[in-house]
Amino acid sequence: MALVLCLNGCATAPKSLSKVNSSTMNSLSTIGTTGFYHTVSRGQTLWRIANLYGVSIEELVSANNLYDFTKIEVGQKIFIPRSKSPGNMYPLTEEFIWPLRGRLIASFGQKWKEETIKGILIAPVNNKEVMAARSGRVVFCNQNFLDLGKTIIIEHPGGFWTIYGRLSEVFVQPGAQVNRGVVIAKVGNTTQDEKVFLHFQLRKGIQAQNPLFYLP
Q1: What percent of the chain has pLDDT over 90?
Q2: Are 101 and 191 members of one domain?
Q3: For 78, how many CA atoms within 13 A lie in the half-sphere containing its CB?
Q4: Helix, strand or coil for residue 72?
Q5: Which DSSP state fits 91?
Q6: Is 46 strand, coil or helix?
Q7: Would you say 107 and 71 are in contact if contact means Cβ atoms under 8 Å apart?
């Protein structure tokens, strides 16, 4: 399958009809017909909470003014802008994991070398192995893609795509099915910049998402 991707703006990709879902909720405080509050429990992400109640991440971000937040915290109250019964919860599907064990050096929307980052930058601490953030199909591998050097793109159910740039070694080929957590590459640098870190993006369709809303 041909995939055309511009990391600074857009991507062309087939639409997926798969639903992405979530798991158990904690305390609720009903506030009438306009919605209610959900109390964040350990391990929950904004994406998990959104799918728990069948709302979009954009709705939660807007309703809770989360634009400047890099993460949500245990005990935090998240307003759910719809009146959904706990009995209407969706079944659980696979969630995202961190693609690299390391240190976050730049977040979504920050400036890096005069450009706005469409993902996050992660520097390795000990291990340079890069893992698939979620199960899916490898649709793109390139040895010198734009300014990211060696790059992998994986397509996931629900219309999601993950992008892994600045790699030193690549262990997968286009068309390969990979499971969440499998090692797909090692992080490296580029010819333009010798610093070692992973450039990781998460997109839904053509829209770049803040990975920190999806990662535990």
Answers
A1: 44
A2: yes
A3: 31
A4: coil
A5: P
A6: helix
A7: no
